[in-house]
């Protein structure tokens, strides 16, 4: 036997002798690492996943620091329905629309999170306008106003400046604030107001990342669990493989929270990838152990054969996979580095769970099954004896 096999044989003996104690340690580790789940961040600013030491990014950061890191939210006012009546609004320059924009601008300027609001309304300060002709006359005297309108005068823009930085919470709060202010101002029939700009797009990306992370993980877990049930022809065996795999995933995600590794566009599907890559370790361990048990060997003998034999094999396989993923950390791109670290952690924890946690869970399940069967037979024996006494 080699060094690794000898070590793993010692581990197997400890697992048999201190199964409950090791199980409690596994639970404690899961709780500690699981606390980190609440600190996982979703990174929607793609610039933060770029190499910040490159000259172009250094210059961008310098400009941001000098002139302020303002983010622009753009409100698009667009005619969507032209009413076929004499009073219908067919021009975005209609006085009702200008007045509505003024009311919205007044509300927005009162918000502490908003630095400034710029729109076509700046050309009407103190100037009366009652008809579309008045509005056109005022705007025609200001050639720069054309920049706020589309060529067909079916849409106009309002620019909202706010300094939210890279905080996802601030961006979400700003988006909600603007939406609430929009809802508080009476709308104009036939005019649609849309929110766009970098902060709005980051909110959308945040929502998509969150949805995809949960959805892909759920689908992957469900399909893998069903396949395990089918292949093992047993719900119990399927769960014995899946539970250690789930522990490895929890440890990985929790460690990412503790280490401050964010979920980004590159790592959002990491959970499903870890489940797919790590499931084989548990399959090998359970199958080898059950083979020895079916030969009539006791728990200790089966364990001292399965853990060193399978453990050394999957250790070598897992280690090469980990090294392969860690090679991604030498990339210049932080987004690739985070992917490499995340996947390497996932495989490492899946491997540890399969070698150290899975055998303990298998033993405890067998002990519980034996205890349950023993007491069931004991109850049946007591009932049988009672029936025989009554029959006499």
Describe this structure in words.
The protein has 392 residues and is of the alpha+beta class. The protein folds into two domains: 3-39 and 234-391, Up-down Bundle (Multidrug efflux transporter AcrB transmembrane fold), CATH 1.20.1640; 57-202, Alpha-Beta Plaits (2-Layer Sandwich), CATH 3.30.70. Helix content is 65%, strand content 7%. The chain has helices at residues 3-17, 19-34, 55-67, 95-109, 132-140, 168-184, 198-232, 235-259, 270-294, 299-326, 334-391, and strands at 71-79, 116-119, 155-162, 191-197. It has a four-stranded antiparallel β-sheet with strand order 2-3-1-4. Helix 9 (270-294) packs parallel to helix 11 (334-391). The longest helix is centred in the C-terminal third of the chain and has 58 residues, at 334-391. The radius of gyration is 32 Å and the shape is elongated. It starts with a helix and ends with a helix.
